[in-house]
Amino acid sequence: MPISDHVTAYLIVSALLFTIGAMGVLVRRNPLVMFMSIELMLNAVNLSFMAFAHFLNSVDGWMFVFLVLTVAAAEVVVGLAIIVSIFRSRHEIDVD
Question: pLDDT, tens digit, for every residue of 67-79?
Answer without folding.
Answer: 988 988 898 888 8
